[in-house]
């Protein structure tokens, strides 16, 4: 009996869709777990019996949010490089396995209090390692699997999935926290196990791994330098001495200086080793350099938008419209759906169009639309009309979708095939670093904005409800970061702030009810918060405009392909220069228009 073999072209066509489906699940789960805890934090802290507003617990709060992001920002380049060396699919598969194991451990936290928080932080760090292996290699796997005329669409879907995971994580966190705080982590278990089995059974290496030595000095100095800087910026949010933020803290300043010095040493090392982990020569490619600069600034602006929206909705707008503070995490995720919808609408379409018309026009237009949305949000009153707010969120989401997919396609198509793993890791590093930086940058801007007006407003409001002058003054002089975190967590801090003084039970019932109701705190901080919003959204709009300028100067359409030696001979005038030596790489070809 003769066996009919399937043509290789049919198998390849089928494989690329399998690769797209699996990597879409992988990056969606990875980025979703990065944001899913943000809105669910109140339920998580209640579940492990920890007061997140206690000054001694602020560190747990910050590391619960930032630990995952810091690991992804620091490790993703090294893991992309290892994918080039040992196999992108091999690294990706192991990432799915690590991610799944950590998800199981997170969903069964047996501890309480500080130990329970440390359990969650530790396993989230390991989960982030697995997630980094997924995101570092997914774009390279797709770039290998898809031809150039479909690559923008494939990378667009991948990138849209990654960023959609950030938005969907907010909604999922709010919904699942209503069921049980552990459900926030349960959701990853079945999908993680499914993805692990699926990837091991279906994915294969398309490109040959490139044998090379591991760049240990580069890996160590980059991880230490980037990690120290991002951690120092995180601690810059916390008050120090008599200051509202920690930027005057010698440890913060020293950490940033040491981290910067290590990154300088890293850059020197990368120019001298034979097989560097970070291909600095790729920045000579204009489309690669401009695309990554735009991605970094856009990630900072997007992260700032995300966190400010949560504070605005949970701490002010929803309570003013009758929602209890316990309900606000869930409804904040629901009311932010226009942002996700706009993003999901524009992203895949823009990826498809970038295959036909190039990345520059779409990406630049999207960034300008984002800048306009930021300015529109800046002009809104704190107690806004929701249809106007929703329209601006949708426009921002459309702008982000128009930028993200074409920009990813432009960056990945601008590098030689043998460098796609490290290029994917570098691209993810800029994006993840921007998200981590956004928390330190925008929280600090907001705290500075609040510090100028909140103390006087808070003192006057408390005195008006019968709180003694001395107690009101003490409460008003507490660091604004406590008030900001209370709004971020959807909690009413007045009872918490007045608790140590013992004043609250001595006040008349009507005054107690007013102070602890849903309107007093939101109305009290509305004006100071608006001052901070103006600062934050102005900075975000400026970043979007700078990103647009970088996008304009990325150049025209850039493609790098491996020519078929049986049909054509590379033209030396169009060959892509090797990013380390500057000499032509005969395995690649670039056509520019």
Distance linking N and C termini:
53 Å
Stretches with pLDDT under 50, minimum 5 residues:
1-8, 557-593
Sum up the overall morphology in one term. Answer: globular
**What share of residues are in beta strands?**
under 5%
Structure report:
The chain is mainly alpha-helical and 593 residues long. It has 20 helices and 2 strands. The protein has a two-stranded antiparallel sheet. Helix 2 (58-86) runs antiparallel to helix 15 (420-464), helix 10 (286-320) packs antiparallel against helix 14 and helix 13 (360-379) packs antiparallel against helix 14 (386-413). The termini are far apart.
Could you outline the blueprint of secondary structure elements for this entry?
Blueprint: H1 8-47, H2 58-86, H3 88-106, H4 113-145, H5 148-179, H6 183-186, H7 188-202, H8 216-235, H9 250-270, H10 286-320, H11 328-335, H12 337-357, H13 360-379, H14 386-413, H15 420-464, H16 469-476, H17 480-488, H18 494-498, H19 509-515, H20 520-552, E1 558-561, E2 589-592
Antiparallel strand pairs: 1-2
Helix pairs in contact: 1-2, 1-4, 1-5, 1-7, 2-3, 2-4, 2-8, 2-15, 3-4, 3-7, 4-5, 4-15, 5-11, 5-12, 5-14, 8-9, 8-15, 10-11, 10-14, 10-15, 10-17, 10-20, 12-14, 13-14, 13-20, 15-16, 15-20
């Amino acid at each position: 009996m003769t066996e009919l073999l399937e043509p290789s072209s049919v198998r390849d066509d089928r494989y690329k869709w399998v690769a797209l489906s699996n990597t879409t699940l992988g990056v969606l789960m990875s980025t979703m777990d990065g944001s899913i805890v943000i809105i669910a934090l109140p339920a998580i802290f209640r579940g492990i019996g920890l007061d997140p507003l206690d000054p001694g617990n602020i560190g747990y709060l910050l590391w619960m949010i930032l630990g995952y992001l810091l690991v992804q920002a620091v490790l993703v380049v090294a893991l992309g490089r290892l994918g080039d060396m040992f196999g992108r699919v091999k690294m990706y598969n192991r990432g799915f396995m690590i991610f799944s194991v950590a998800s199981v451990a997170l969903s069964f936290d047996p501890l309480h209090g500080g130990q329970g928080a440390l359990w969650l932080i530790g396993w989230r760090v390991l989960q982030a390692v697995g997630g980094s292996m997924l995101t570092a290699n997914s774009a390279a796997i797709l770039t290998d699997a898809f031809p150039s005329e479909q690559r923008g669409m494939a990378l667009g879907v991948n990138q849209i999935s990654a960023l959609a995971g950030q938005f969907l994580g907010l909604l999922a966190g709010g919904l699942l926290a209503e069921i049980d705080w552990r459900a926030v982590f349960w959701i990853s278990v079945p999908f993680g196990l499914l993805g692990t089995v699926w990837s091991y059974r279906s994915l294969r290496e398309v490109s040959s791994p490139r044998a090379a030595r591991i760049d240990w000095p580069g890996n160590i100095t980059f991880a230490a330098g980037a990690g120290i800087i991002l951690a120092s910026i995180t601690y810059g949010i916390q008050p120090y001495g008599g200051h509202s933020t920690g930027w005057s803290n010698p440890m913060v300043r020293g950490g940033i200086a040491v981290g910067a010095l290590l990154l300088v040493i890293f850059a020197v090392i990368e120019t001298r080793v034979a097989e560097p982990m970070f291909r600095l020569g790729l920045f000579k490619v204009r489309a690669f350099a401009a695309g990554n600069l735009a991605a970094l600034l856009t990630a900072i602006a997007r992260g700032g938008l995300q966190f400010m929206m949560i504070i605005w909705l949970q701490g002010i707008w929803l309570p003013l419209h009758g929602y209890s503070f316990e309900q606000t995490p869930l409804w904040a995720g629901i009311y932010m759906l226009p942002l996700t919808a706009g993003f999901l609408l524009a992203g895949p379409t823009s990826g498809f169009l970038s295959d036909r018309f190039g990345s520059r026009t779409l990406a630049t237009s999207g960034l300008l639309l984002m800048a306009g949305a930021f300015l529109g949000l800046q002009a809104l009153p704190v107690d806004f009309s929701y249809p106007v707010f929703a329209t601006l969120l949708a426009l921002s989401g459309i702008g982000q979708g128009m930028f993200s997919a074409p920009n990813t396609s432009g960056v990945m198509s601008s590098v030689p095939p043998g460098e796609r793993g490290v290029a994917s890791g570098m691209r993810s590093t800029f994006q993840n670093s921007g998200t981590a930086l956004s928390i330190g940058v925008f929280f600090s801007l907001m705290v500075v904005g609040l510090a100028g007006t909140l103390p006087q407003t808070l003192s006057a409001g408390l005195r008006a409800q019968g709180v003694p002058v001395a107690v009101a003054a003490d409460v008003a002089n507490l660091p604004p970061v406590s008030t900001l975190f209370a709004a971020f967590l959807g909690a009413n801090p007045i009872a918490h702030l007045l608790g140590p003084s013992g004043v609250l039970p001595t006040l008349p019932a009507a005054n107690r009810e007013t102070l602890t109701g849903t309107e007093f705190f939101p109305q009290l901080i509305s004006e100071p918060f608006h001052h901070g919003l103006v600062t934050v959204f102005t900075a975000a709009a400026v970043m979007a405009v700078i990103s647009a300028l970088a996008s304009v100067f990325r150049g025209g359409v850039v493609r790098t392909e491996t020519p078929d030696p049986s049909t054509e001979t590379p033209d030396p005038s169009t060959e892509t220069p090797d990013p380390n030596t500057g000499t032509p790489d005969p395995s690649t070809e670039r056509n520019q228009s």
